[in-house]
Amino acid sequence: MPSKSRITPDRVVLMGTLLAALAYIQDVRYDFILDDIPLILMNETITSWRNWKMAFVTHIFAKKGPAVPYIVAAVHYRPVYKLWQMLNEQLFGSVLPWWHITSLLLHIGVTLLVYQLGVKLLKERWTAALAALLFAFHPIHAESVAYVTASTDLLVAIFTLISFLAYFRFREEGASPIYFIASVFAAALAMMSKETTVMFPWLLVVYEALREVPSGTKQGWKRFVWTLPFFAVVGAYVVVRTALFGLNTGQGPGGSRVAALLDIPLVLIVYLHNLFWPFRLSFFYPAEWGSHWTFLKGAAAVLVIAAAIFLWNRYRDRCGVRLQLLWAAILFVPAVLGVYTFVREDWVHDRHMYLVSVPFCLVAAALLTDLRLPAKASVIVSSLVLAILLIGTTLQVPRFSDDTTIYASALKVAPRSVLAHGFYAEALWTYGRHEEGLREFKITTELSPQSSAAYERYGAALAEIGRDDEAMAEYTKALHWSTRPTLFRAFLLSEVAEIELKRSEFPEAAGHLREALQIAPQTLNYHALLAQALSQQGRIEEADEEMRLEAGIRQRFVQEQRASRD
């Protein structure tokens, strides 16, 4: 893409980042959505810098105060991400536009770093500029940029790229050792931003393996010694995380974790499809896309392998392109290993492609500017691709305007997604659209007929609007599928007892509450509810004893709250 005019690669990248900003700026009008609520609006730990130490000893969903049961997909230990949230909260409070703007600024920063990376590795400024624009405009990034909580992906990308560029400056350009120290420090920040950084040392290993050196210079194993501090960073993170939370590996797919590993190629195909054809993106995708093999999916897997071999051979003389192919393969590993950690409907999310798309865009730019292609054709095709991607991003961003919109759009792509229906029901209920919410809750129970959680939530919604008979029916189904003595079963029993108290069925309520207390004797309100049931039966002494126990639990609760504030 040579030009003798004032149009330079640097200026094109700056103009491109401005266009990307214009595509995303519409999100400043949007609400906090999804996990923004617990992680930002309801998170007291980010309201004061005095809580900064908690960022290093708690996971991202942990709240200030006494420990309470909270189900999360997996433990996410991300201290730098929590400090980023704290910084935003201190600067802007809960004023939405600024949170969106800081995410956009991070995306712009990453785009500029992608340009610098392309200049260093591809050795062609116009190719690097095209890669940066492909990255800035790609619709798959809408989730990472427009969804405030997904800024963790932006942070890990910016620190990872800074780390590599500093490492490159030290190794290739003979810069001061300060650059190496800065590289290790940036890698540590990336590691504490998101767990995907565990693969970063391997990016350096393949870089050292492929890097060009002056002729006559012996390539020995000693060059890999420079990567050891980065492995040490990963090791230190794993040790600290394990010490704090144990070997938590998430809920898993619901069946054999090992068997789920066989679905990794399918998940990879879904991600590649979304990168190459980003026009039917969604917050949730059909579970069968990543878990059911078909002939076409098998053919696609063979095609992916053939394409990788073709590109590797085609660019045998361009180490920078080969390096990006290996980087893409390495960075895909954490995304596809989600099959081991998450439930099937959570295996694929666009935000997991934010860092992976960096080498993807660099390789795509190399293909579009290949010297074996006519220059005019290269310019026309590249311009057309960029225009399509920018329009696609502009159309994708509104999906994140509010909770109901994002789940309604997800259901168009994944109409049988239990998670999408469940979250859509919660969003409708929150917005006061109760009849629509009840319909979605019911669909959730039909799609997941053995889910005690689905029946419980449907029953709770019915109880909230006074439809106790229907609520009791749903609670009964929930208890049928929740037979183990868990905290959830205890909670179900207390909900059943509350309806029985309203119906004056006091012996039945007392029986259910006693079972709940056998499971969870230190839970707030259970003793008080039992005291109410007993007093209505004239068993005053037993009721008084239950109230004394309740008072003791409440006193300890208050003491724990005070201790947590201190």
Summarize the structure in words.
- The structure is a single chain.
- The protein is mostly helical.
- It contains 26 helices and no strands.
- α22 packs antiparallel against α23 (487-502).
- It starts with 8 loop residues before the first helix and ends with a helix.
- Mean pLDDT is 91; it is low at 64-72.
The total strand number stands at: 0
Binned, the helix content reads 55-70%
Structural class: mainly alpha
Shape: elongated
- Multimeric state of these chains? single chain
The largest β sheet comes out as: none
Taking pLDDT < 50 over at least 5 consecutive residues as the criterion, the unreliable ranges are: 64-72
Name the beta content range: under 5%
Number of helices: 26
Gyration radius, rounded = 27 Å
Could you give the distance between the termini?
62 Å
Order of helices and strands: HHHHHHHHHHHHHHHHHHHHHHHHHH
Q: Mean of residue pLDDT?
A: 91
